[in-house]
Every structure is written in C-alpha cells, then in structure tokens.
Amino acid sequence: MRPHAEVEEVWPRDGRIRLVGRIHGRAAESADGWRLLLVLRGTDRRLRYDARVKGDRFESELPIADLAGRDAGRDASGAAGVEEWDIHLTDGEAELRVGRQLDDIRGKKKIMVFPEQRTGGLSVRPYYTVKDNLSLECRPESRAGEAI
Fold first, then answer.
1. pTM of the full predicted structure?
2. What is the pLDDT of residue 31?
3. Long-range contacts from 19-23, C-beta under 8 angstroms, 24+ separation
4. Average pLDDT over residues 37-59
5. Of 86, 106, 124, 131, which residue is most buried, by most CB within 10 angstroms?
6. How far, in Å, CA of 103 to CA of 98, rounded?
7. What's the mean pLDDT when you consider all of the chain?
C-alpha cells in the first residue's frame, strides 16, 4: 500500500473541519514543517494549514470560510458549479493523500455522510471519494439558502 495519511476522525463543526489521524507507510522524521494541503481540482489553487505531528500522529484543522473565495462555486463562464478540494498532508517533500484505507469498509462514498456547513454562499461538506480518500465538496447555495 502506498504511503498516505490515514484519517481516523473528521470533525466538521463551528465553521471548521478538524482532522486527526496517522501517517502510514512513511516515517515522520521531523514534527516540524508539516502542513495540511488542499488542492482545488482542475486548477493550481492551493491552501495550506499548519499540521501538528507527533510520532506518526497528525492533527490539523481548516476554516471553511477560506473556501468561499470571490469565484467560489463558479466555473469559467461564471455559472454556478461544484468545487472539489482534495486533501493532502505534506512535509514539503512528499504529498500524502488523506483518506481511510486501513479499515474493512469499502465504498465509503455511498455509506458515510458528513454534515454540511455553510459560509459565504457555499455549502461545504467532507466526503469520501470512490478510492476512499477524503475530499471537500463546495456547492453554491440558492437564494433560498439551499445547496444547488
């Protein structure tokens, strides 16, 4: 199995998403310099947040308001669309994909549902991909306040 960041806890609440887990398949040679890295699919847009690493354990959190940029939820034509952010843990050399691979649950995308939070006209929700990696989905809200 490839080295990755095995997420054990996902806490979406109070305008933040907190992640707790373990680094799998790679030694965390230093506790310094680790960052949670969000990459917006199909773009070069990246957001970085401090990550606390002790031994093989990591913990980090991100404010969802950072995902509501001026063009958030809009495609190149300006139409409303869904944005997907992939989550990685990085020490500057390696980018370890954050996901949950070591349990016996396959197909988490159809099984596990996290609550959404709202900020700046967006609905933000963590979700598992078809490969059991963790990503964020940002959907623009309609004028009635519901995600499109």
1. 0.87
2. 74
3. 19/58, 19/59, 19/60, 19/61, 19/87, 19/98, 19/134, 20/57, 20/58, 20/59, 21/57, 21/58, 21/59, 21/98, 22/56, 22/57, 22/58, 23/53, 23/56, 23/57, 23/58, 23/89, 23/96
4. 96
5. 124
6. 14
7. 89
